[in-house]
Design goal:
Elements: H1 2-12, H2 17-24, H3 28-36, H4 43-52, H5 68-89, H6 93-102, H7 105-111, H8 113-116, H9 121-142
Helix pairs in contact: 1-3, 1-4, 2-3, 5-6, 5-9
Length: about 140
């Protein structure tokens, strides 16, 4: 299903599989397999491909609602983490956010907020590097 959405967006933008692949660092054959459903990809990976085309993809998950105060604290922590990451890598905030989103650094910060917020800045940055490097390698191997 995600592959079909990606293909539809790509064709609407008049982007070739080869061009999309170049934008995200994948060969044309990998884009083809994704679009045909021959390779399963995560929502985060689909987000990366859509972002490379200037498009967004979203899903709505129903469940219990987090209290507003806790959500605000978590969002503030993630924002600070992205800012630290951007500064450490000499990237813009937007580029750092996209990178962390693609390679699951944002997800890591959100899921581990309670623990990570107790750590020093350098430890958080090291954790983000490890998570992103591991997920970047997984993505390359999967495709």
């Amino acid at each position: 299903m995600l592959g079909a959405i990606i293909q539809q967006a790509r064709k609407a933008k008049k982007i070739t599989q080869e061009e999309l692949g170049k934008r995200v660092g994948l060969p044309k054959s990998s884009i083809s397999k994704i679009e045909k459903g021959q390779t399963h990809i995560s929502f985060e990976d689909a987000s990366l491909l859509m972002d490379a085309m200037g498009e967004e993809i979203s899903i709505q998950v129903m469940g219990t609602k987090e209290p507003d105060e806790r959500r605000v604290e978590r969002v503030r922590f993630v924002t600070i983490g992205v800012t630290w990451f951007a500064n450490s890598k000499k990237m813009t905030f937007v580029d750092a956010y996209r990178y962390l989103l693609i390679y699951k650094g944002i997800q890591f910060l959100e899921e581990n907020y309670a623990y990570e917020q107790t750590l020093p800045r350098e430890t958080i940055l090291n954790d983000l590097d490890k998570v992103c490097n591991r997920n970047r390698e997984k993505l390359r191997k999967a495709i």
